[in-house]
Amino acid sequence: MTKHELKELLNSLTLKEKIGQMFQALPHIFGEDGAITGIFDENVETDDIIATVGSILNMYDTERMKKLQEQHLKYSKIPLLFMNDIIHGFNTIFPISPALAATFNPRLIKETARITAKESAAFGINVTFSPMVDISRDARWGRVCEGYGEDTYLSSICSKSMVEGYQGESLQNDDTIAACVKHFALYGAPYDGRDYNNVDMSERMMRNDYLPPYKAAVDANVAMIMTAFNTINGTPATINHHTNVDILRDEWGFDGVSITDYGSAKMCLSAGVVDNHTETAQLLIENKVDIDMMGGVYGLKYLGEAVKSGTVSIEQIDECVMRILKLKNKLGLFENPYKYFKGSDSISESERVNHRAIARQSVSESSTLVKNDDSLLPIAKDKKVAFIGPFVEKNDLTTHWAQIHGEREIGLYINEAVNSFPELKGEYSYSIGCPYLSDDKELSEKPENPCENNAKLYEKEAIEQAKKADTIVMLMGEPHELFGESGSRTEITIPEVQMALLRKINEVNKNIVVVLFNGRPLVLSELSELAKSIIISWYPGSQGYLGICDMLFGYTSPSGRLPFSFPRKSGQVPLFYSNIATGHDHPEGQFHKYVLRYIDTLNSPLYPFGYGLSYTEFEYSNLSLSSSTLKRGEKITVSIDVENIGNHDGFETVQLYIRDVKSRLVARPLKELKAFEKKFIKSGEKKTVKFEIAEEMLKFYDKDCKFNAENGEFIVYIGSHSLDDSNSANFELV
Ligand code: NOJ
Q1: CATH number (domain holding residue 191)
Q2: Percent helix, strand, coil in the chain (nearest 5)?
Q3: pLDDT in tens, 19-36
Q4: CATH number at residue 426
Q5: How far, in Å, is the centroid of ligand 1 from the Cα of 37?
Q6: Do 473 and 408 reside in the same domain of the chain?
Q7: Distance separating alpha carbons of residues 122 and 85, to the nearest angstrom
Q8: Is residue 686's pLDDT more than 90?
Q9: pLDDT category, 319, cuts 50, 70, 90?
Q10: Which atom in ligand 1 lies closest to the alpha carbon of residue 293?
Q11: What's the rounded Cα separation, in Å, for the pair 649 and 237?
């Protein structure tokens, strides 16, 4: 439709129809099935809803969706939008977001989102509530499993890549979907790590560390943004004018659609900042929020009332509705409301094969080897291997978001994966060994566990197998019931029942490899003493065990790098590398009073941000700068030689960090990641890696919240992780 036609359409709508566009319903309102992903509210308006509603949330039945669209269009000129939580893949399930961040491979990340868009568009989905780019430095928060880690720069790159992947060249294409970046803003920074809790943060920290990933999505033309559940400095994010209007709309120029999170509009009343939902409706409109997910507040009852009483004008309503119509128009729904129902068959088998190959590649690229004593990995193809642990019983290495619908591909069990490699000639045994969760965990839904009633028997079998094996591969970790939404924990540990089994196995055989499944950084201090090799695999998705076998048997080398600092103890969180010097800093491990430290553990993480080993080794040398003076508006080049001095080919992720040594404007972090390059380097090969340094990379929000870089001294570090200081050079900004 042309602009003019859209305007005419808008003008032809009644108030009820306009408000309907701003209302997002669960399919249950129409007696249809769908995933319920929040507290179900019976009290939403249902009057005439089928005729006027603008969008549907989380419906997963393509035939019924199509029928609903047909039914709706009998009454309405405006097609429905179908919006779903497609978080780490649709049919093909990819590793979870922190794992994708761990790839440090923006092209691959974009490709996963591209595939997800193709698969979900063919099913009839128009919008995904992804990417979630909430920076989090507190691993107690259960939703760190959905974000891209602790680092602002890495998360911003991931944010951009995901949006570009979902939205492709143009939203007009029928294999692209609109992305919705969330949760605006600061949802990942609740002050005690508990999901939904409040956030209080300085404007400077918010702008320097937390807002850039949302901004990166906006700069990549993201179609939608979702407000957050939390308050920001005392005001619910959903009605926080400073973030929603001053920053998002006015400063960043975002003119896409803004949507509340599930029921967050109604929560303004519980927060005690409004008298009633009609007042919330008015505030939402003033915040330029266009759609109310779950429709609690945007309905005739409250929004209609606000219009009637004059606190909301028709012009304000029109502005919101126009943004929604524009999105429907961009997606091409007016020309063909059924264009997204091409069906799964529209994706050819050869495309599917390619999707699986990318998912499999992502497993090695995201899995992070943090320990490999005695080169226990890779395992020779003729060894006796005992696979032990509760994940032996799992073939669905995915999370809640993939499990809320039946469209996902289910992967192979570990034994099936091993059997699919004809050249593996060793002896392989499999034993669950122990339950997945300790009995004392209070969970509303207890996961099924085959060894629940026979734990002793399984343990005995596992120990017998361990005794006979050359190598043990423990498949263990954090059950997905312990992370995700409302999945906050005070102890970020592996269930004790699994650790107890590991101790017993270690007593009979020390050649232990742990493949860890996790949704958050976990405390691995004891585990790192009991295992010789550790691969952190997160939740690797539908190609999980195939990808894991690729690494275990040396067909690929794990090449992930950690997107979070992994603590030594739970009490260290929030933990992140980009700290500011305090004046009480002191060398690690020496006892002194009056220095910055814990009494009972070191300051440093067990494994730092950016860390990861490989089956080979890399040596860095010859760091050199094209000039030690950077003039504003110009660039200098820094280069370094990276040589593969080991026996395997492999990827190295070369990381560039900068320290602003002195800043009178405000104290600056000891280090910040500013660039990286993931390079494939053959055994014996040396590559020169070059980066440009520009003034823009040195800018930050100062104490007056001005975006600036100050003249003076900087240090550039190039290395293999955030604590690697071995190669650095100084330069000056003039
Ligand atoms: C609530 C979650 O916070 C959000 O991320 C999700 O997209 C919505 N529910 C819809 O399921």
Answers
A1: 3.20.20.300
A2: 35, 20, 50
A3: 999 999 988 877 777 777
A4: 3.40.50.1700
A5: 6
A6: yes
A7: 15
A8: yes
A9: very high
A10: 10
A11: 48
- Residues 55 and 93: beta-carbon distance below 8 Å: no
* Residue 37, ligand 1, Cβ within 6 A: yes
- Catalytic position from the list 85, 138, 261, 702: 261
Tokens of 125: 């989905």
Return the pLDDT at 403: 94
- CA-proximal residue: ligand 1, atom 3 (nearest): 261
Q: Are residues 660 and 714 in the same domain?
A: yes
Q: Cα separations (Å) of 331 from 59, 60, 76, 336?
A: 19, 20, 18, 9
CATH number at residue 634: 2.60.40.10
Q: Is residue 498 part of a domain?
A: yes
For ligand 1, pick from 26, 96, 129 the residue to mutate: most ligand atoms within 8 Å of CB: 129
The number of the ligand 1 atom at minimal distance from the alpha carbon of 187 is 3
In a domain, 202, yes or no: yes
Burial of 297 (0-12, 13-18, 19+ CB in 10 A): buried
Q: Is 384 found in the same domain as 513?
A: yes
Interval between CA 148 and ligand 1 midpoint (Å): 17
- For residue 61, the number of C-alpha atoms closer than 13 Å in the C-beta half-sphere is 11
Spacing, Cα 483 to ligand 1 middle (Å): 15
Q: Choose the final residue of a domain: 256, 291, 322.
A: 256
For residue 633, give Cα distances in angstroms to 153, 389, 440, 663, 698.
21, 56, 60, 19, 12
pTM of the model: 0.97
Instruction: Report pLDDT digits (tens) over 484-528.
Output: 999 999 999 999 999 999 999 999 999 999 999 999 999 999 999
User: If we measure between CA atoms, which residue out of 645, 649, 716, 642 comes closest to residue 677?
Assistant: 642
Ligand 1: residue of 181, 187, 261 to mutate (most ligand atoms within 8 A of CB) is 261
Determine the distance separating the centroid of ligand 1 and the alpha carbon of 519, expressed in angstroms. Answer: 17
Domain contains 288: no
The answer, yes or no, to whether any atom of ligand 1 lies below 6 A from the CB of 261, is yes
Question: In the 8-state DSSP scheme, what is residue 380?
Answer: P
From the alpha carbon of 58, which atom of ligand 1 is closest? Answer: 11
- Looking at the structure, do residues 625 and 552 belong to the same domain, yes or no? no
Orientation of helix 544-552 relative to helix 349-366, angle to 10°: 50
Burial of 242 (0-12, 13-18, 19+ CB in 10 A): middle
Q: Render the burial of 485-496: b for 16+ CB within 10 Å, e for the rest.
A: bebbbeebbbbe
Nearest to 101 by CA among 485, 516, 562: 562
Encoded tokens for 127: 């919008």
- DSSP assignment of 543-560 equals THHHHHHHHHTTSS----
Shared domain check, 475 and 384: yes
Q: Is residue 705 part of a domain?
A: yes
Which is the closest atom of ligand 1 to the Cα of 229? Answer: 3
Compute the distance from residue 179 Cα to the ligand 1 centre, in Å: 14
- Please name the amino acid found at residue 674: K
Closest atom, ligand 1, to C-alpha of 132: 5
The reply to whether 261 belongs to the active site is yes
Q: Rounded distance, CA 512 to CA 158, Å?
A: 33
Q: What is the pLDDT of residues 129-181, one digit of tens each?
A: 999 999 999 999 999 999 999 999 999 999 999 999 999 999 999 999 999 99
For 575, the token pair is: 């933990």
**How many other C-beta atoms lie within 10 A of the C-beta of residue 168?**
18
Number of domains in the chain: 3
Q: Quote the ligand 1 centre to 38 CA distance (angstroms).
A: 7
Q: Among residues 227, 256, 285, which one ends one of the domains? A: 256
Q: 727 and 645, same structural domain?
A: yes
Give the structural domain span for 676: 618-733
- Rounded distance between C-alpha atoms, residue 256 and residue 328, angstroms: 11
Check if 550 has its Cβ closer than 6 Å to any atom of ligand 1.
no
- The residue to mutate among 293, 401, 486, having the most atoms of ligand 1 within 8 angstroms of its beta carbon, is 293
Q: Do residue 454 and residue 559 come from a single domain? A: yes
